[in-house]
Write a structure and sequence with these properties.
Blueprint (H helix, E strand, L loop, with lengths): L1 H26 L5 H29 L7 H19 L10 H47 L5 H15 L7 H16 L6 H33 L3 H88 L3 E6 L2 E5 L1 H6 L22 H13 L7 E6 L5 E13 L2 E10 L1 H15 L9 H18 L2 E9 L2 H8 L1 H17 L6 E6 L2 E9 L2 H16 L2 E2 L5 E2 L3 E8 L6 H17 L5 E3 L4 H18 L5 E10 L5 E12 L3 E3 L1 H11 L2 H21 L6 E5 L2 H4 L4 H12 L6 E6 H4 L3 H13 L3 E7 L6 H6 L4 E4 L1 H5 L8 H13 L3 E4 L5 H9 L4 E2 L8 E2 H20 L1
Parallel strand pairs: 11-12, 14-16, 16-17, 17-18, 18-19, 19-20, 20-21
Antiparallel strand pairs: 1-2, 1-5, 3-4, 4-5, 6-8, 6-11, 7-8, 9-10, 13-14, 13-21, 13-22, 14-15
Helix pairs in contact: 1-8, 2-3, 2-7, 2-8, 3-4, 4-5, 4-7, 4-8, 5-6, 5-7, 6-7, 13-14, 16-17, 17-18, 19-21
């Protein structure tokens, strides 16, 4: 009994000493000076690398670095040191020191925030640099495109200057100014189809990106450079140093205790060695298992904390709305969820019933999702729902849900995404696919659908249907003289007038350009259609007042076809209406014409003529005729006007009134006009070389030629090639060509005048000339239109108008040429009004070059005879 008690006491004493030794062993801090040096090195590197990273960011912002390799390398170095300090071979976090853990957590959080900002900076800065590079190139391409108006080119170049002048410290007013400069281009985006429209869209997109991203990139740079991790790193270093010093002091105490305990244990071991020998192995195994269990528990707790924190951050930063409900009550919501439901904070949603936030029409869908998740353990697929915000507004969303445990309770997590913008975009795309963006009328696609349905209704009801094809008369002239912006206003006004003049059951659409179509249903007979056509003519007859204060008058040529009388399918109806419209134009415009089968032959003739016209230049079918200009007093020839004629191999001689409008519409007038100019210069130089008196040759410029960017260079090149002195060339322009964008016209005419070329205003008195502008234009001659000359000798004639034109020209020191003089009486009247020159059939019609040379011979001989007499 005593032996057993003694053994028990010795065992108890041994256990006490062993426990003390074990306690000291387990809790004694390990002091590793090499590791300590590595930790301090790592801590000192963090602020150094952070400062370097800020420097690289600034270099990127100012374009001193072309790639992000150095930035990525520096960030990876910081994260590597962070990883080593958190869980690497010399980690200082997660070792049971709350101060170090908190300091490390603050540092890691700050670094994560900075990394997030850096990623956003890289993406935004990449887009900004890309747009900053391509934006000037896009503006240059747009400016060099011949189809772009001068106003648009000036606006684009102005925008380029304002955007390029924005500095990193640009004020909000400077950004606003650049944004305002962009608005006119955005407003013209739909006005330029095809390649010009794509160029304009590219300019707008790059400008919008620069304005949006430059300010954001500047803010990101400030945010990156201000989010210094150096104070947190310094705090972490100080916290670690204090902890290390405490551990070192505690280690010394533990070392002393270990020595004392070891001596006591050694004394006890000598006494108890034999007794404990058998149990030593088992005790060691037990201690090792306990140590492993403690280590594993600590690691598991640390991983759990990291997982929970990471998940919470992921949920909070998610752009999708996420909330968790236990039973039917909301227990958690992230910030995106609060914004979606119109709550100030997520706390406003916690505690609410989930069905309060769901629209009644979506309750059944939500119940089915709950059944799938709660009872069947499935994750629900994406489903469209309608939610109710706290302010009562409804929002369409798509959502999914899944089961999870929340605070050891079964719960359900719901993820929602707002569909508002997506649905608006889909609606916008659907609208653009069916409606004309300029006028709001049906476009070609929707019009064809409506026509198909109307034809089906007419077939079923045995009724008549009428299709009108309307083309605005001389719209191209309006567009060329007053500009595309005014042209757009005219199209919008015309669309509104057409809609107001029709019944509710009728359909009006814009097929493109200045072409409109109208579907008339429930038509009784052709007279019914004629009444509607007259109503449309009357509606279009009133003036349209543009933004510039100009009164623009428009008319329309209307082609009409009837279903089922004229055709029984869409294509045939459209073709018949188009043919009838051309018939209306041939009858003088501002009228309407019904389709008749014989009109197809006329339409085919026009198409054939256009095809032959495209080959006329290369087949050398054009010739130039010359009409003399004559001095009214002396009767001597003073000049000649070059007029083109077309001798087609297939069609014979074609009237200019037939093929010139086709050439203007197709763009062929540009190469044809250059050919006329070259031929006229060659002929005039040839006459001079033969010893004839030097004459002025007049060549008409078309509106299309006048808008060409290289007009001055082309004319200078022709003069250089032909050797004709510029003072012997006279270019005739109409009033309408020079009244739009007067300042640009003055500049262009000034360049032509500097070459030494003479300039005349043709058909004067038929346009809208401003005397103020006429004084500034460097022109030398006014040509009185033949419509005023024709009635000079009639009762109630235009003598007063002609006299006023001559008097005005004399006051402006300009020459005057009267066109279309056909009788002796007209010439006598012009002589009495002191008109300087005339041309017309009274003296000579336009003749080929050889005949004109013979006229010059007679003129020279008659002058010689007068001198000899």
């Amino acid at each position: 009994m005593k032996l057993r008690m003694g053994n028990s006491k010795r065992l108890l004493a041994g256990l006490v000493i062993a426990a003390l030794l074990g306690f000291l062993f387990v809790n004694s801090p390990s002091i590793d000076h090499v590791r300590h040096t590595q930790v301090l090195t790592a801590l000192s590197k963090l602020p150094e690398l952070d400062a370097r990273m800020d420097e690289i960011v600034l270099k990127h912002r100012f374009g001193l670095v072309n790639n992000y390799d150095s930035l990525v390398t520096t960030l990876e170095s910081i994260k590597r040191y962070q990883h080593d300090l958190e869980q690497g071979e010399y980690a200082i976090a997660g070792l049971g020191n709350p101060e170090i853990d908190q300091a490390m957590a603050r540092f890691s959080t700050r670094l994560a925030e900075k990394e997030t900002v850096l990623e956003r900076f890289k993406s935004r800065n990449a887009v900004l640099r890309n747009s900053s590079y391509y934006f000037p190139l896009a503006v240059d391409k747009l400016s060099r495109d011949r189809r772009v108006s001068g106003a648009l080119r000036a606006q684009a170049e102005s925008l380029l200057r304002q955007v390029l002048l924005l500095r990193i410290s640009a004020t909000a007013d400077e950004y606003e100014s650049a944004a305002r400069a962009l608005q006119p281009l955005i407003g013209k985006r739909g006005s330029y189809p095809g390649p010009v429209g794509l160029l304009l869209q590219e300019v707008i997109q790059h400008a919008e990106k620069i304005l949006a991203y430059q300010r954001e990139v500047n803010q990101l740079v400030l945010k990156i450079t201000s989010a210094q991790t150096e104070p947190l790193g310094r705090n972490l270093t100080q916290t670690y140093t204090r902890s290390f010093e405490r551990d070192l002091a505690r280690a010394n105490v533990y070392r002393l205790l270990l020595i004392l305990s070891s001596l006591a244990l050694f004394a006890y071991a000598v006494d108890s060695f034999l007794r404990l020998r058998k149990n030593a192995a088992q005790l060691k195994v037990t201690l090792d298992e306990q140590a492993r269990e403690i280590a594993m528990r600590k690691k598991a707790e640390q991983e759990l904390r990291q997982t929970e924190e990471g998940y919470r951050q992921l949920v909070e930063l998610s752009p999708d709305a996420i909330f968790i409900h236990v039973g039917s009550k909301v227990v958690f919501a992230n910030g995106a969820c609060a914004r979606l439901f119109g709550a100030t904070t997520a706390g406003e949603l916690v505690g609410r019933e989930t069905f309060e936030l769901i629209h009644p029409e979506s309750h059944d869908s939500v119940r089915r999702q709950r059944h799938l998740v709660a009872e069947l353990g499935q994750t629900s697929s994406l489903t469209e729902l309608r939610i109710v915000r706290l302010d009562g507004a409804t929002v369409d969303v798509e959502g999914t849900s899944g089961a999870l445990a929340y605070e050891d309770k079964p719960a359900m997590q719901v993820v929602l995404r707002d569909l508002t913008e997506r649905k608006k975009s889909a609606e916008r795309v659907a609208y653009l696919a069916q409606y004309d963006t300029l006028t709001g009328l049906l476009n070609r696609n929707l019009f064809r659908d409506r026509l198909s349905l109307a034809m089906a209704r007419a077939r079923r009801g045995g009724q008549m249907l009428a299709l009108m094809f309307i083309d605005l008369d001389r719209f191209k002239e309006i567009n060329d003289t007053l500009g595309p912006a005014t042209g757009d206003k005219v199209l919008q006004a015309a669309a509104l007038l057409l809609k107001k003049s029709l019944r509710e059951i009728d359909t009006v659409a814009r097929l493109g350009g200045d072409e409109f179509t109208i579907i008339l249903e429930n038509i009784t007979d052709a007279d019914h259609v004629s009444t509607i056509a007259e109503k449309i003519k009357l509606a279009l007859a009133g003036p349209i007042i543009t933004e510039g204060g100009n009164d623009v008058f428009i008319t329309g040529s209307i082609g009409i076809t009837l279903f089922p009388n004229d055709a029984d399918n869409i294509e045939a109806l459209l073709q018949a209406a188009d043919v009838a419209m051309y018939k209306a134009k041939e009858e003088g415009r501002n009228t309407y014409a019904f389709y008749a089968p014989e009109l197809n032959a006329q339409a085919a003739g026009r198409m054939r003529m256009e095809g032959l016209l495209r080959r006329a230049l290369e087949r050398d079918e054009f010739v130039v005729h010359y009409q003399p200009k004559v001095d009214v007093q002396s009767g001597r020839i003073t000049g000649m006007e070059a007029l083109i004629r077309w001798n087609s191999k297939e069609l014979g001689f074609v009237s200019p009134g037939q093929f010139i409008p086709l050439a203007e519409k197709s763009g062929l007038i540009v190469p044809i006009g250059e050919w006329i100019l070259r031929a006229a210069c060659v002929q005039n130089k040839a006459c001079q070389d033969r010893g004839f008196p030097s004459l002025l040759v007049s060549v008409n410029l078309s509106p299309r030629q006048f808008r060409e960017k290289n007009l001055v260079e082309m004319i200078a090149g022709v003069l250089a090639d032909t050797g004709l002195a510029p003072r012997f060339l006279d270019l005739e322009i109409t009033e309408g060509m020079v009244m739009h964008d007067a300042e640009a016209v003055i500049a262009l005419l000034g360049r032509l005048h500097q070459l030494g070329i003479q300039l005349s205003v043709d058909d004067f008195g038929t346009g809208y000339s401003s005397l103020a502008y006429l004084k500034r234009f460097p022109v030398q001659t006014l040509k009185i239109d033949q419509s005023f000359v024709r009635d000079l000798t009639a009762v109630g004639s235009d003598t007063g108008i002609v006299k006023a034109i001559i008097a005005m020209a004399e006051s402006l020191k300009l020459g005057v040429v009267a066109e279309g003089v056909e009788t002796k009486e007209q010439l006598a009247c012009l002589a009495s009004l002191h008109c300087g020159q005339y041309q017309g059939y009274y003296f000579s019609k336009p003749v080929p070059a050889a005949d004109f040379v013979r006229i010059l011979e007679r003129d020279r001989n008659s002058a010689g005879a007068v001198q000899r007499g």
